[in-house]
Amino acid sequence: MKLTDKAVQTAHEDHFGQPGKLFRAPARVNLIGEHTDYTGGLVMPMAIDFQTIAVISPREDKRLAFYSHNYGEETIFDLKSLERGRQGHWSDYPAGVAWSLWKEGIRFGGFNITLSGDVPLGAGLSSSASVEVAAAMAILSLSESTLPLAKLATLCRRAENEFVGAKSGIMDQFVVAGAVAHRAMMLDTRSLEFDLLPLPDDVRVVIANSMVRHAVATGEYGNRRDEVEAGQAVLQQECGVALLRDATLADLGACRDRMSPESFARCRHIITENERVLQARDALLESDMPRFGELMVKAHTSMRDDFAASCEEVDTLVEIALRQSGCIGARITGGGFGGCTVNIVKASEAEAFVSAVQREYAQATKIEADCFICEPADGALALAKKGGVA
Ligand code: ADP
Ligand code: MG
Predict the structure, then answer these.
(1) Is residue 49 annotated as part of the catalytic site, yes or no?
(2) Per-residue confidence (pLDDT) for residue 325, from 0 to 100
(3) What whole-number percentage of the chain has pLDDT above 70?
(4) 76 CA to centre of ligand 1 in angstroms
(5) Are 206 and 354 in contact (CB under 8 A)?
(6) What phi and psi, each to the nearest 5 degrees, are found at residue 98?
(7) Could you tell me the pTM of the whole model?
(8) Mean pLDDT, rounded, for 354-369
(9) Could you tell which of 121, 171, 212, 372 is best to mutate to test the pocket of ligand 1, judged by most ligand atoms within 8 Å of the CB?
(10) How far away, in angstroms, is 90 Cα from ligand 1 center?
(11) Would you state the pLDDT for residue 253?
(12) How many angstroms separate the CA atoms of 315 and 289, rounded?
């Protein structure tokens, strides 16, 4: 069901007995550049038209009340207990943002905040960054401060890394805050410089959810990071690179004997993926979508074989997608071991594509895949500028 501003305003008033100010943040999908953002590499996400709405109003008693309309649940605690730390609860995300802002010297009094989102949770579309950035925008309004994009994204990331305790790069928070409609964003996660790139009007981005999330996902994500970091440490020592981002395939080849076969393969994925992101940028600048599609397919193969982070269901979903006439490219997106695929499809065939993929995936796996036809959406800052604040 589509979220409306009015419904969330009403939920806030019903729950807290006072009206509030409204802020929004979208979700995101990564077109190419997977697992590159924690070694200073390149990514190319875009915001999508799912959102989290945050409605906020001040309260006098220096308490912070977080109400999630999705969960129908409230958590409340004293401002001075912001250091309470992780509770293993959804409220860690917005409370972590309040903690991160406070730690940065941004001061606010008590507040009531209502959060409501239509982002599928835990599907790899970053409902977490969406909820963080929406909450940050809302809390900042109370302290009458604004933050530049890089700072906003960095503080939200700190909430997720240090408060929630989820290891993640900067990509999600950065694009959720800073995206611009009709554009994909190529982000250099080291310098935080970015390019906004046009996607042609005659294609759609179709997200297909495999609906599986393998139990190994969390542990394996950590293992992959360890394998990558071990490989990076060898490259730093032997080749003098600052980050894996700076290494070439020749450097990696020269260090092959000094790292595990796993680290070698994971690093090869990242080095080739960074190169594919650069080529994907050129393809978009030249409106060469067939080239863009080829790069997506190569990126999928690399995620599957070198990074060993795909799974049977997602591979099936990609194979089915690539058989469809309107499909230009398809790959796994997100951390891996399940989750979603991202597909570039001719606009005129997008609906037929969705029906065929759902039918064939159900035949192959007995699972009904959720599919979403998307276009690049505005991030939270652009939404606020265009009057997203009510
Ligand atoms: P993803 O970011 O891929 O959706 P995560 O596990 O990183 O998955 O984040 C999902 C978590 O974010 C949810 O389990 C919940 O704790 C929190 N969250 C997201 N949206 C909301 C919301 N509207 N209300 C409360 N918590 C939310
Ligand atoms: Mg997340």
Answers:
(1) no
(2) 94
(3) 98
(4) 18
(5) yes
(6) -60, -45
(7) 0.96
(8) 98
(9) 121
(10) 7
(11) 97
(12) 22
Does pLDDT of 352 surpass 90? yes
Contact 39, 232 (CB under 8 A): yes
CA torsion, points 135, 75, 171, 201, in degrees to nearest 10?
Answer: -60
> What residues are in contact with ligand 1 under a 6 Å CB criterion?
52, 68, 70-71, 90, 93, 115-117, 121-128, 131
CA of 318 to the centre of ligand 2 (A): 22
Domains of the chain: 5-197+377-385 (3.30.230.10), 199-374 (3.30.70.890)
Q: Which ligand minimizes its atom distance to the CA of 89?
A: 1
Q: What is each CA distance from 254 to 41, 235, 262, 347, in whole angstroms?
A: 21, 9, 16, 45
Atom of ligand 1 nearest to the CA of 120: 4
Nearest CA to ligand 1 atom 26: 90
Q: How far away, in angstroms, is 134 Cα from ligand 2 center? A: 14
Q: Whose CA is nearest to atom 9 of ligand 1?
A: 128
How many angstroms separate the alpha carbon of residue 180 from the centre of ligand 1?
23
Q: Indicate which residue's Cα is closest to atom 24 of ligand 1.
A: 68
Residues with CB under 5 A from ligand 2 (ion): 126, 128
pLDDT-derived band at 389 (thresholds 50, 70, 90) equals very low
